[in-house]
Amino acid sequence: MPSGPLMVIGGAEDKLRRRTILREFVAASGGDRARIAVVPTASSLGPEVVEVYDALFRREGAADVVAVRPQSRDDAHDPATVALLDDVTGIFMTGGNQLKLSAIVCGTPLGDAIVGARERGVVIAGTSAGASIQSSHMVAFGGPGSTPKQRMTQVAAGLGLLESSVIDQHFDQRNRYGRLLMIVAQSPQLLGLGVDEDTAAVVERDERGHEMMRVVGRGAVTVMDPARITTDAFEAKRSQPILASGVVLHVLPAGQVFDLTERVLVPPVPQVDPGEAAEIAEAEQDLRQLARDIAAADADPIVLRRRLARRRGRPSHDPDGAPA
Amino acid sequence: MPSGPLMVIGGAEDKLRRRTILREFVAASGGDRARIAVVPTASSLGPEVVEVYDALFRREGAADVVAVRPQSRDDAHDPATVALLDDVTGIFMTGGNQLKLSAIVCGTPLGDAIVGARERGVVIAGTSAGASIQSSHMVAFGGPGSTPKQRMTQVAAGLGLLESSVIDQHFDQRNRYGRLLMIVAQSPQLLGLGVDEDTAAVVERDERGHEMMRVVGRGAVTVMDPARITTDAFEAKRSQPILASGVVLHVLPAGQVFDLTERVLVPPVPQVDPGEAAEIAEAEQDLRQLARDIAAADADPIVLRRRLARRRGRPSHDPDGAPA
Q: Does the keyword Protease apply (chains A, B) (predicted)?
């Protein structure tokens, strides 16, 4: 069985209106056959968070929702807790404090069971802290700012579901360019993935074994590729800005697909403007008519020109007011 | 005479402590022979701003400071106002509203006199709004956020002192990646320059005519090079995130030099760690002594090894606690 998709959600996914991301998660987990485990360990709340997601997932048609809520590494070793994941089709890790989540779950039977579940096809989703923990190298915490500075953030070990990349979330909203640039400058074999709120990076392995990422939701996913970086991260002092020259950026809105293994954009399909398409179709029709008229040899040029002008006089399409 | 340097300052330059940038400006303007014009038109204040900079520049040793304060395009056509720039060696444009500044100054005799002053070697500095106006294509205003969105900012025409680039300021502090990315996605012949607070991009033309930028101050200058961008900026709707894939980033702290014409980093000189250098020098000395001892043929290996161990027993240097 192919491994299940990862859904790396940038936090604050819409819960009331469009619910694009939660819907996609439940659908990917099997829709009305979905059995979902909610892991709220990152949160300082507990049953309240589970109640919210329980209601949300059932509203989207999920068959069953179960809470898996270890509060200590002992809990995460408890076979009864681990067994809760045996027959789920989707796992959802909530937001909160990713270092609390990783400190309790990583390297325990429960952590291993999450990784194992993905290998048998289960969808693994996480939002905010639950997104961060999916990478091998996890942003533990850090400050805001656009400019990378030497000690502005801290890395810890995550679940390792995504090995190519380090994940940051609330990216558009919380000014996190600096901390993600600092991390990739210090670890240039990693890609940086900055996921906006109400946005998800959906990562699936294709038949070649490549990690293919598709963007879903309201914002964008920003990919930082430091493969050819020039940096002084190995000698910059204290909290000084660091040199990070030659990082390639990809800002990817919904619908875009990026190959995380090859580090290239899958070329987008150009969008055809419906107004422009209608105009071209009309012009082609005019030309065919003109050719027929000429062939029929009733071809007084003035008559032809007037007929064309009448046809063209119809209002044209401009549905959006976009620049011409 | 070669054209004068531009100092593009990201706002909030230090005025009380190190004063790195204001010092560099006065020194470049001639030190105790500096005659400086302050243009406070962007500011909603007026005489107060001039008083502050008057005091600051005189404290750094400037010979004279004069206010050039047009409040309308008529003022900017007044020959008496324009004549104030005749014998200055430095011009300093304050912060405030760059659209007010450009609306009053650009395309007037005063605007032409600023451009002309640079051509005869005068230093042209601007902070915040006064920085923005230096480019040909000027950020007029716009919202914050890391992700570029279709209508998040507005471009107007600036003074045109810097043609290769569009300038944004308060870059680290105000989360302005998105708006600068939007602009370069729509105008990929331009570089984006994001200048942090208390930081300056100092741009001078070299003998080849290249615009060479050197970074001064506490933060960094971020260069966005969209030469190879893939974008949907020409068809993205309303305020949606736009695709901006393949933008090359250069985050440049103080001391770095970047060729804006060729769009390449001038390779930094690697720093030598003083502790490491001392250790290597010592090891070389040991080896020379060993060679002498062997050559002198008093070479009992045990004696030699003990002697070496005694020398090595001295404490080694680790002044900074940086990673080994």
A: yes
